[in-house]
Amino acid sequence: MSPLLNLATGPRTPRTIVAHVEDRPGVLARVVTLFRRRGYNIVSLTVARTHEPGVSRLTAVVDADDDTARRLEANLYKLIDVISVDDLTAAPAVIHELAMVKVNAAPRERTDVIELGKVFGARVVDVGPTTLTVQITAPRDAVDRLIAALGPHGIVDLVRTGAVAMPRGDVAPVPKADAYTLEEPDLDPDLDD
Amino acid sequence: MTAMPIAPPAPAAAGASPANTPAPFTPAPDGAELTGSQIMWEALVAAGVDCVFGYPGGAIMPAYDAMPAYPIRHVLVRHEQGAAHMAEGYARASGKVGVAIATSGPGATNLVTGIANAQLDSVPTVFITGQVSSALLGTDAFQETDVTGITLPITKHNYLVTRAEDIGPTVHEAFFVARTGRPGPVLVDITKDALQQKAIWHPPKGEPRRRGYRPDLRAREADLERAAAMIDAADRPVIFCGHGVVRAGASRLLQDFVARTGIPVASTLLGLGGFPATHPLSLGMMGMHGEAWVNTSIQEADLLIALGMRFDDRVTGRLATYAPHARKIHVDIDPSEIHKNVRVDLPILDDVARVLTALEPRVKRRDRKAWMQRIDALRGDSAVRDIRNLPDDGHLYAAHVILDLWRLTEGKAIVVTDVGQHQMWEAQYYKHDHPRKLITSGGLGTMGFALPAAIGARMACPDDEVWVVAGDGGFQMTACELSTLAQEDAKVNVAIINNGFLGMVRQWQQFFYQGRYVATPMRSPDFVKLAEAHGLTGLRVTKRSEIEAAYATAKATPGTVVIDFRVEQEDAVYPMVPSGADLHDMIRRPAPASAIVEKPEDF
User: What pTM value is reported for the model?
Assistant: First the structure.
């Protein structure tokens, strides 16, 4: 465990952090170097371009407690190529990942697999002579459950994209207008009045 | 008298760089077609650069070829690490951005230690490196190194430039990034073909705009109000003066704030001079080698007001028992420092100078006499152990060498220290009353820093007296830069605290490794002859009674003077908080009745 996690506050839970970054060579290396150097444990990381020219969007899921997550946000903010950082963990947000699971399915087993997929809202995207490939787009725990359910059929191949996230409603994570702000500090009650 | 001045140095070596002769200069007009090299120098001149430190080589040769037309002094170093430290020394002494230049491959990798040092001490610096031509990038070409990759975690930001037209805007942005927010090193790697190609030059206008870079953080009104309430309520507060106070130019503001609040000030190593050491409310340096009263008062405090410092492990000791009774206000420009080492009650993200300006009218006028009486009592307890009160017993102690340096330079010199025991003795005994007068390697602890950094300080402040205080070990790491001093005909005086050991490691071996002195006894060259071999002056001092005459000779002699102080070999720095121990759990200097030099079994 990184010594930086010594001040751990609260349990370590998966955090979903969204950052807009400059679409420049080396940006991903900067972000990944930061994670490695400060000892953050990456659960998943996805990056792709956005509708805005020159801007890429990055979604990172990390295992962290409150303070560690806040410092990660602050450290990302320090990177010159990072335009905005938002922690969507506590915010109302759609957090999905896509998975494709290729499972053994002889012709007479196909119906079972297809029905199972339907329960999870997954669909079949490829049919092989003895396999089916099922695709799901859902929150991480639903993906986990589908994979567990398909397990008895025998998983031949599996790919997950890692989470992507978007706030619900009309809000969009935008570059903070002025600058970085901290969460409200914990103050003694007598000073709070 | 062993102090023996020798003949003054010969004039600067033949073949001094033609770049050092001033030439009439007019900046190129907007729209002029220039080579990438010319654009690089135009951009440096536009950034206010008057001196660079560097070493030529294949990939950077086009830039060197264009240099003589520009009003910039070039200091030819003997090793690129020296160039990096010189740029740091220049920046630390002047407050401006320091610049070092090197070629690709080994030239660039030799800069790395200096870049890491600048990163840990937040020194505004720009490093320009040549790179192989863009067509050869990634082919393992001769002298190709992925220097932007190597320096990624040790720079504030870095750039790889492959087109001439990008050089101007990139250099402009590099200087902006280096000096704003929390300052730091920025590296610009330029391919040889970009230096050779032509492009249209546009002089920079205004501050560069980057949507992801907003260094100008501002405190919230409510937080300033809370801070004022916490300060007013505190009976035993201590202010921490960190490097941020020096960087923000907030020394005067801090003195005004202290005059109003009566709050004593403890300093970090890099904060020394940010608050006058001779001020009655100055406590001195805190932490591992801070005086006992400083650390004890921190442990007894009910409020810590940390200004531009980062609660480094050398400052706090064991975190679990650190300042247990104190609420903590942390003022810093870098949000990632908040709650990093110490959980604080009130973080304020802003420039220290702006915060002090905003806070002063909000806090009550108080004198806090009882608290100062308590601290003075702690001080009195330590005074009896003070080596300054030791009569001359025929031995030469480093503390006396430094105390006399302070006395004889009237506390006004720029002192550049290396890393180790001498560095701590300097911090304890040279009373810095002014900011930017102590230049030392704090965060990285880079041995070999002092001599080159002092050359940088000399170039930045030609009218100041500049002293190097270095150990015999660290001095040898970059002693080649004596040759640079000789060629530049620059005067930097050098006090080598020569104890024949890697002293601080020896001290740890004495305290924590049962006195097994493994690989710490060190044989050095004859430093007097070494100075003379460079055409400089060398002196040797072996007795306390000789110190004063040696300093007088150093002052009067033109050119650099190197003094070899043969000090007590097994002296130790006291007090000492062992690494990871409670801040109040110090190894104290033995009382004068016992020997100054303790044997390991005494601990």
Answer: 0.92
